[in-house]
Inverse folding.
């Protein structure tokens, strides 16, 4: 794929003109083009009249010819395909590898193992997607939570009910392989060329089940509603795993349970393994009118039909902490993301069209090991306590209602919620509450300082109608299980910590890539048993 950057056009120009400019700059004859698309579109509003700035992606009918055009101008770059092959090792793996967790990390680990002939067994504590969707809808309608089938747990993992954003900063070439796999399983074609690709929860679900079916077709087994409950070890080596369906022999376990598997972390600690405390963040979900965010980002160009839904990412250092926005969902909604009874957790998602009226994003402050004396149990207890307080504070709106407050009110510590043009989208309903009182005072004050700084970056960020809903506590895993260069746990051979829960990923793309890295490590060492 050839990328042609920095094509500047006026607001009245059509998209087709960006394409023509791209061909001219890169000196590509029209007849050679197989496909083109807009990879990135931004607005340069600095010098009076706003300009649209395009990056155009072009694929040639003969992809082998693409490098010849890459040097035409400094604005032209080449983006190659990821050629990812793995050679199996020689040591016989006499029992199937086991994968714990069917989130992006476990799914991609399972897929590579299955493609390499290993017939893995995948354990997932929650149900298959269809049943999981019913459980999530039932919870949303009634407030009856299934601790094993919810926004965090079940086929597809935490990202299933998400915006499906595939952006990541890890810069690993395996990202290309993940994208190609998602495309082959039905993700929208544009994720191949968009700079900020997103799938949307509606389309992501079909992709996940399609990948799982490929694993099964290759001889892998997926055991739904089956949790990993224990490890059996002998002389510092894993020999079997305990599950809710009984014990199975195991010499290679991909441990990818996500950041919410607190009981599973407890099981590891009770097995004598040491978990490290790692930084995570807590705070709220902010909601604004999408149109107001776009006015601030696009200025006079706001509302132009060619422009993508406006997105933002903000951060502000306040003392030794950082207040930042995270997982921004344009045109999205705030979702009830609890996985434990009597605890409220917020998160955000959107459908592929991102057509909702509100923009939402997490506004969070970092906390770390030093806040908990390096004790992972204290870090988890802190998350749980905040979620319990949020549950109590939101209860006036019904079970799993969430506490909410206008941003201005939060800044002034008033605990008021006046609903104007920004209608809160949290599905279980919201109740007015003093959000500052739910967090330790120092964290609330830090968040206030961060929000005041955001107003200088996005005009109207703290406008009276903007709303905060809480609490956001599951930004990433509070723990890490250390692994060595061979990807195995440094304390137990045969255990492969993987994905977000083990502390090695943050987001769908990086979790999927980590799953591939772990599976590659297993494949390169072992040969699958026959039959
Ligand atoms: C609502 C929401 C929206 C999000 N939006 C985005 C987004 O747009 N873009 C993005 O990049 N990231 C997003 N994220 C974060 C992203 O989903 C996670 O970073 C990613 O899913 C982590 O992948 P994982 O495979 O490591 O873990 P998970 O996806 O958490 O999967 C872990 C799986 O393990 C299972 N499990 C847990 N314990 C056990 C056990 N003992 N035995 C068997 N199975 C077990 C769980 O049921 C779960 O299915 C979002 C998260 C949420 C909740």
């Amino acid at each position: 794929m050839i990328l042609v950057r920095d094509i500047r056009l006026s607001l009245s120009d059509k998209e087709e003109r960006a394409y023509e400019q791209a061909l001219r700059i890169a000196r590509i004859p029209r007849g050679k083009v197989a496909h083109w698309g807009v990879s990135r579109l931004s607005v340069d509003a600095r010098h009076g009249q706003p300009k649209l700035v395009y990056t155009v992606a072009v694929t040639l009918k003969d992809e082998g010819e693409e490098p010849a055009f890459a040097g035409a101008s400094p604005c032209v770059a080449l983006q190659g395909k990821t050629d990812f092959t793995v050679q199996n090792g020689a040591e016989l793996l006499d029992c199937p590898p086991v994968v714990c967790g069917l989130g992006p990390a476990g799914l991609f680990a399972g897929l590579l193992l299955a493609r390499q002939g290993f017939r893995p067994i995948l354990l997932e504590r929650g149900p298959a997607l269809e049943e999981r969707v019913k459980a999530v809808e039932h919870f949303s309608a009634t407030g009856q939570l299934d601790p094993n089938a919810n926004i965090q747990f079940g086929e597809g993992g935490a990202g299933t009910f998400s915006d499906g954003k595939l952006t990541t900063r890890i810069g690993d070439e395996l990202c290309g392989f993940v994208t190609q796999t998602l495309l082959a399983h039905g993700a929208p074609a544009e994720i191949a060329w968009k700079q900020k690709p997103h799938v949307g929860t509606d389309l992501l679900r079909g992709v996940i089940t399609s990948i799982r079916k490929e694993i099964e077709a290759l001889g892998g087994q997926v055991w739904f509603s089956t949790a990993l409950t224990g490890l059996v070890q002998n002389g510092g080596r894993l020999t079997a795993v305990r599950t809710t369906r009984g014990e199975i022999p195991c010499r290679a376990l991909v441990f990818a349970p996500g950041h919410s598997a607190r009981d599973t972390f407890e099981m590891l600690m009770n097995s004598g393994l040491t978990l490290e405390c790692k930084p995570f963040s807590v705070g709220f979900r902010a909601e604004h009118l999408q149109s107001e965010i776009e006015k601030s980002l696009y200025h006079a160009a706001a509302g132009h039909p060619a422009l993508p839904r406006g997105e933002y990412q903000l951060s502000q250092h306040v003392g030794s902490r950082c207040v930042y926005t995270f997982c921004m969902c344009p045109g999205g909604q705030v979702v009830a993301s609890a996985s434990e009874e009597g605890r409220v957790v917020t998160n955000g998602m959107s459908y592929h069209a991102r057509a909702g009226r509100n923009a939402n994003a997490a506004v969070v402050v970092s906390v770390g090991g030093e806040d908990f004396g390096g004790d992972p149990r204290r870090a988890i207890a802190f998350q749980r306590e905040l979620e319990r307080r949020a549950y109590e504070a939101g209860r006036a709106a019904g079970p799993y209602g969430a506490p909410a407050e206008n941003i201005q009110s939060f800044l002034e510590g008033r605990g008021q919620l006046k609903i104007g043009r920004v209608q809160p989208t949290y599905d279980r309903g919201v109740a007015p509450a003093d959000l500052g009182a739910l967090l330790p005072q120092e964290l609330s004050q830090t968040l206030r300082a961060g929000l005041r700084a955001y107003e200088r970056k996005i005009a109207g960020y703290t406008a009276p109608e903007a709303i905060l809903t809480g609490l956001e506590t599951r930004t990433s895993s509070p723990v890490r299980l250390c692994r060595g260069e061979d990807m195995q746990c440094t304390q137990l051979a045969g255990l492969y910590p993987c994905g977000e829960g083990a502390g090695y990923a943050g987001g769908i793309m990086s979790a999927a890539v980590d799953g591939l890295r772990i599976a590659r490590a297993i494949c390169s060492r072992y040969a699958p048993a026959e039959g």
